[in-house]
Specification:
The complex is a heterodimer of chains A (291) and B (277). Chain A is mainly alpha-helical and 291 residues long. Chain A contains 14 helices and no strands. The two termini of chain A are 45 Å apart. Chain B has a domain of 171 residues: MetI-like fold. The chains are: A mainly alpha (291), B mainly alpha (277).
Chain lengths: 291, 277
């Protein structure tokens, strides 16, 4: 073996192996071991378990509460992804319109991303329970008079509102960078050609930020599918399990019902769904990007 | 024409102002009501009645076991962030600078790993680390798990930054007879300072705000982190809302202060992390 090759192997072992080893111990080994656990009926308490084949997967898909939770998750993800991107783009457009105090506003819009989901969920829990009902009483607007969190449909709306409140501030930052990267000559040329604001946005700005749209949609999809903290502290899945999203459902199946094997099977289903949707989304929107 | 443009700018300014107020309203309500009595809060969250009570903070401080929870959070955040950042920087340096086949594999693995939801490794981690190794209620295990979870994204951020540093710098050092290791620590590492600040802020934030991992492994009061204590404190369904509000303020205050001080790096970090995903 040449001296150079030995040196390279040493460098690899010193610099790449330690982080990758820790990562493998924390992520990859549990991931693979988790696939094996879905074939068992482990209850989380005893050390013993039986191998039951694919029974857990059969149970998962014949469980109406799981299918229900899956459908709710899809609805939630759809609205969160669409609304947070639309609002993120609107905020970014407004902020790049050349107004004063731009950076102070940016700080305000982004601030919600600094706090964790648990704290955020609680803050909004108080707002829906006390502040909004107060506004409803004062203004006599019917929909604000009773707390949204006590109604199955409105509780889901509340969950979407809170998630969008946080996520749109995050996506806004990426969109601001996207809009600022559009060469000013392009915008100038379009202006000389006499385009109005809407045409300018639709024909020039939007196509130029398609790579930002790709990454923001990707982020929104994975964040929304993994929503857990805010679900727990805002609605705890209620009322009557109407807002129990998949990530929370998995937690309950394992840690409240002691069906660890089944919970793990649900988690694997979530993982496969996120992976497939992410791959499809990235490949579709990559095709739409302008080179 | 010029005048019309100015009017439009003012309209946009006011629209943005109103939206910004709506966005920060929740924070103001929580802070305002954390200084009021619970009854005044329930009666009208927007009023200034009984404003000025500090007693809520004393109650919250005790109930949350604040100093202890704060200490646990700080230990986990500081150690995990420091180790994950340095390991990621070293990792990124070698896989970006040396075009070996295995480095491409490593890079692809890390990118693919970013879509793994925590839920899918949570239960196996409980069995492997909690049950087999008996490490529940151990903050060092939680620290270790956070290090592992925070390898892919920082490596990705560092990798983008390293490819922007001219390779001639390393080559010059190598020709002078310095080893690759020495080149990294004396020449490259100092240049990584801006991206390191970004990585540190990102990693520290995600660990500070983590609930699910900590709640899976930490159940004793003595080892709980701040978000866990907030939840335990709030989860008891009493009607004493004002101290709870004070507890929320205490939990978010440290990060909000850091944010106001270092927001430039936070914003830059998001942009850096979003290019070429």
């Amino acid at each position: 073996m040449s001296r150079k090759k030995r040196k390279n192997i040493r460098l690899f072992c010193e610099f790449v192996v330690p982080p990758m080893l820790i990562w493998a111990l924390v992520v990859i080994i549990p991931l693979v071991y988790g696939l094996y656990l879905t074939l068992t009926d482990w209850n989380g308490l005893s050390n013993a378990y039986n191998i039951i084949g694919l029974q857990n997967y059969a149970d998962v898909f014949s469980d109406s509460t799981f299918v229900d939770s899956l459908l709710k998750t899809f609805i939630y993800v759809f609205f969160v992804v669409v609304l947070s991107n639309v609002l993120g783009i609107i905020l970014a457009l407004l902020l790049t319109a050349g107004i004063r105090m731009q950076s102070i506003f940016r700080t305000c819009f982004f601030a919600s991303n600094m706090i964790g989901g648990i704290v955020m969920g609680y803050i909004w829990n108080y707002i829906f329970s006390f502040a909004m009902t107060k506004i409803g009483d004062l203004t006599n607007i019917g929909i604000l008079k009773t707390s949204w969190l006590t109604d199955p449909v409105m509780a889901m709306v509340a969950l979407i509102v809170v998630t969008v409140w946080q996520l749109s501030g995050y996506l806004m930052v990426i969109y601001v960078a996207g809009f600022s990267n559009i060469p000013s000559e392009v915008l100038e040329a379009a202006r000389i050609d006499g385009t109005n604001s809407w045409q300018l946005f639709r024909m020039i700005k939007l196509p130029m930020i398609m790579s930002s749209v790709t990454i923001c949609t990707f982020m929104a999809i994975s964040k929304a599918f993994m929503s857990f903290d805010v679900n727990l502290s805002l609605t705890s899945g209620g009322p009557f399990k109407s807002t129990e999203l998949l990530a929370l459902k998995i937690y309950q199946t394992a840690f409240s019902n002691f069906e660890y094997g089944k919970g793990q099977a649900e988690a694997v289903v979530l993982f496969v769904i996120v992976a497939i949707i992410s791959i499809i989304q990235v490949s579709i929107s990559k095709r739409k990007e302008v080179n | 024409m010029e005048k019309r443009k100015q009017t439009t700018t003012w309209i946009i300014f006011f629209v943005v102002l109103v939206m910004a107020l709506l966005f920060v309203m929740p924070f103001f309500l929580v802070i305002l009501n954390s200084f009021k009595e619970s009854t005044a809060f329930v009666a009208n969250p927007f009023s200034l009645d009984t404003f000025g009570k500090v007693a809520n903070y004393v109650t919250a401080f005790d109930t949350m076991n604040f100093l202890n929870a704060f200490k646990n959070s700080i230990i986990i955040v500081v150690i995990a962030t420091a180790i994950s950042s340095i390991l990621s920087a070293m990792n990124a340096y070698v896989i970006t600078r040396y075009r070996w086949k295995i480095n491409k594999v490593v890079y692809m693995l890390l990118i693919a790993a970013m879509v793994i939801p925590y839920q899918v490794i949570m239960i196996p981690q409980v069995r492997l680390y909690g049950m087999y190794l008996g490490l529940t209620n151990n903050i060092w295990l939680v620290t270790f798990l956070h290090i592992g979870l925070n390898i892919p994204f920082p490596t990705f951020l560092y990798s983008g930054f390293v490819s922007g540093i001219p390779a001639e710098l390393d080559e010059a050092a190598l020709i002078d007879g310095a080893s690759s290791e020495r080149t990294f620590f004396t020449i490259i590492l100092p240049l990584l300072k801006p991206i390191t600040i970004t990585c540190v802020i990102f990693t520290a934030l995600s660990i500070w705000n983590d609930y699910i991992l900590a709640s899976t492994f930490l159940s004793l009061k003595e080892v709980k982190t701040l978000p866990l204590m907030t939840y335990a404190f709030l989860g008891n369904h009493s009607a004493d809302y004002a101290p709870m509000m004070a507890g929320l303020v205490l939990t978010m205050l440290p990060v909000l202060i850091l944010y106001l001080a270092g927001q430039k790096y936070v914003i830059e970090g998001i942009v850096a992390g979003s290019v070429k995903g």
